[in-house]
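Section handout, structural biology tutorial.
Before the tutorial, make sure you can parse a SMILES string by hand: atoms, branches in parentheses, ring closures as digits. In the record below the ligand is flavin-adenine dinucleotide, and the chain has 417 residues. In the tutorial you will relate the predicted structure tokens back to the input. Do not try to memorize them.
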Amino acid sequence: MDKHNDAIILRFMTITTDIAIIGGGLAGAVMAVCARAHGLKTCIIDAKPSNIQSSSDFDGRSYAMAHSSVRMLKALELWDDLEKTAQPIFDIKISNGGVAEIPSPSMLHFAKYDLEEGPMGHMIEDRHLRPLLQNRLKDKDEIIYLDQTQVIGQNTGPTSTELSIKGGKTKVKAKLVIAADGRKSAFAAKAGIAYSGWDYAQTSLVCALEHEKPHKGVAYQHFMPPGPLAILPLNKNRSSVVWTETTENTETIMSLNDEAYLDVLRPRFGDFLGNIALAGKRFAFPLEMSIAKRLVADRVALVADAAHGMHPIAGQGLNAGMRDIAALTQIIYEAKQRGEDFGSTTVLSRYQEWRGFDATALPLALDGLNRLFSNRSRLLQDIRTLGIGLVNGLPNLKRCLMREAAGLSGELPHLMQ
Ligand SMILES: Cc1cc2nc3c(=O)[nH]c(=O)nc-3n(C[C@H](O)[C@H](O)[C@H](O)COP(=O)(O)OP(=O)(O)OC[C@H]3O[C@@H](n4cnc5c(N)ncnc54)[C@H](O)[C@@H]3O)c2cc1C
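Predicted structure of the complex:
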């Protein structure tokens, strides 16, 4: 009997589990895999049908996974399947371009030989990562997946919390609920957690391109006044493009046909990779920042975008989410080993302490970077030139930034060591 039939039968009963996870996207799925690896049972509740997440057309993004996130994927035995299609990032070149100009020569260069651990990260395509995770969830008896399902009520007692499911007779009883339901989590709001943040009035246009010449594993970031243009290496002669523009412009650009779309992109992209052609569908992601004011409430913890929705300017959102999940898993596991109630306020406060600062500081730092680069101000242009010169002239600072981007700084959870 497949998992979905199981789920239908289970709609008429109370499911008792260790952890309920709201949201079965990338973060929710990784959380369930981690919990399973630490002997914990989970029940995932997601609003969408699970089979659409496995479709290769579902989400055109490719993720720059930092070195530490790759270590975690290895620890979770997911890497062997991903490595075949992953592209190592050897070098990163950052330049200060201008709209309708060929991007200027690289001003800042992070090279692979500056980091002794190996490549700074790997590019992984959503169409490979998401179906792999969905399959791993189906493999395991310790994971129940309730798709097309939403929580309508929560009743928290001294040792567990009970979730009521919309339209059904099912209840889910868990010691802890983890909200992984994305930006401005509705579940977190119901648990009394407020958000701060704003709309960027920017949208990222995402597509994969085939090109004539090899990229040699180099990732490019060109800062343009409307927003950054990232050209990220994928396996074979392909690159993922994250082209950020004002939302007003992107509405017009998205309405163009494929050829006209490429005509607008070409002058920004340059010709250093030879002829380019689309290698799949085009996607648009409107950008906003949302930072949860707390990461925990009564028997509730937030992870990934539910905790911190950030600008994709440095490709850090999922990496930060992986760090949340690794830290929370470690805290829960160690508490369980000591015989503590892992859903208690005492245990959850350790998670708040560990991840609380990063969850606010990282989105704000990326926000600052976006403000500094996405404009035409002469003053800020001078500050940018000064800043880039400073990084180039101070090898220790450059190394620090590289280690930060590779996720190797700060207190690393066991799964990332
Ligand atoms: C253009 C772009 C490029 C990016 N590039 C990178 C990168 O290179 N590297 C990187 O690390 N990060 C990157 N990110 C960030 C990364 O994509 C996100 O951090 C990540 O996808 C968040 O996953 P999530 O599972 O937390 O949230 P989501 O993907 O939003 O998943 C939330 C899940 O919750 C479900 N859900 C929502 N509401 C409910 C509800 N009420 N009840 C039940 N279920 C619900 C949804 O159906 C969904 O399945 C990028 C982001 C963008 C926009």
